[in-house]
Amino acid sequence: MTGPVVDLFTWINSRTGLNFSVFTDTYDGERFITGLITTVELSVLSMVLSVLLGLAGLWMLGAGGFWRALARGYVQLFRNTPPLVQLSFFYFALGGVLPTLTDSRGAQVPAVSGFGWAVLSFSLFAGAFNVEIFRSGVEAVPSAMIEAADSLGYTRLQLYRHVLVPLGLRICLPSLTNNMVNLVKTTTLAYAIGVPELLYAAAQIWSEVMNVREMMDLLLVVYIVLVALLVWLMERWERALRVPGYTP
Amino acid sequence: MAHELGSPVVVVRDVEKRFGNYTVLREVSLTVRRGETVCIIGPSGSGKSTLLRCINGLVPISSGSITVGGREVADAKLDVRALRRDVGIVFQQYNLFPHRTALDNVMMAPVIVLHQNPAEVRARAEALLAKVGLADKMASYPGELSGGQQQRVAIARSLAMNPKVMLFDEVTAALDPETKKEVLITIQALAAEGMTCILVTHEMGFARRVADHVYFTDGGVIVEHGTPEAIFSAPTQARTRDFLDKIL
Lengths: 248, 248
Prior knowledge:
The structure holds 2 protein chains of 2 kinds.
Chain A: H1 4-16, H2 21-24, H3 26-63, H4 65-79, H5 83-97, E1 100-102, E2 108-110, H6 114-139, H7 143-151, H8 156-186, H9 198-209, H10 212-240
Antiparallel strand pairs in A: 1-2
Chain B: E1 8-19, E2 22-33, E3 37-41, H1 48-55, E4 63-68, E5 71-72, H2 80-86, E6 87-90, H3 102-112, H4 118-131, H5 147-159, E7 165-169, H6 177-192, E8 196-200, H7 204-210, E9 213-218, E10 221-226, H8 228-233, H9 238-247
Parallel strand pairs in B: 3-8, 3-9, 6-7, 7-8
Antiparallel strand pairs in B: 1-2, 1-4, 4-5, 9-10
Helix pairs in contact in B: 3-4, 3-5, 4-5, 5-6
């Protein structure tokens, strides 16, 4: 590894003893980047799935009867238990009883990878909050909008798709942003089941290089940047959805 | 109005509507013929708006019968959405979809509900908006329009569905005198073209000028009905006289 960044951190190391091996050592750098990519993948997949789950739950709440009860049960279960407990349950309890598959080299591999369980677990966790967030948005849409759509012959799906969700989303977008920020931070729990995301990669590095303090500093900075990027994107979306003369 | 009246479009027969123990409509019967303009007047809380909502099935009736174009509204097998396409309704508070432009508001239902060709719908929507005097406001959002302009967009939105009958629920009650006039002129033009219109209104001058037939309701019953001349100049019932004395 060469270049100005390497030179800078080598110089810092020689002057202060601080060892940011991620910038000076190729192997550590690659591990850290892999961790960063895994964290981003975990976050993006879980965000997309949790929003879909939120919409599905919203739809089920409006359907009444069995579906409504199912959506409520889902929200209670996943909102009211700790995410680390949920993740452990999926990985150790559920993952343990699933059959293993044989891969191309004849080795026994679990049917669902740790990454897979983490995505599922975080999606369900954040999705439960999204159901409530979307519900709060849709319930704040004046009932006159529903009456207008009904009187024009809209089906329930058309009502949700073209009126309730677009209007409700504008109302609940700040809450959704909060939940998505929480979700990004929650992905560090995947550390517990050995998914090589950022925290896991950092822990591997500091246990070998003994640079806990430096890796902790770096982790904080990386998460601040990641979340800032997400918030910036969400605020752009919020602005893009703004309608002249309408305050949700 | 001087035009020939056709076959009955809306027939209301002995309709009763109860909300719990409270009877809102009692033995209400009325017939509206094709091309006819009917005004329903009466004090607040006399069930006028409920009656309109019963006609397009937004509010189910407790007993009696309502037919629109020969179809029984209370029939459980009736396609309610098909009925609502035949019956346009314009509300006191306009109820436009605030996140879509005036043109979109008019286009949405024909495109989404009737699956009509968007290009054809667009041409028709532009013509309708021009007709209600809003050719220069097509790209405006409801929040950028005055109350009277919004109400005219709402009328165009209903007309885009090519309804057999138009219901107007105190459509000028929330407007100031100048904007009131532009909406009333729009409705008068519609009536003159032969659109079947049922209006719940407090505009006595308008009812007198435009209506073919006037119904006076009080306490959920039709107290008396007749030509505007008869109702406004020579009411036979004391309650009608009291009401007219109070407001005229």
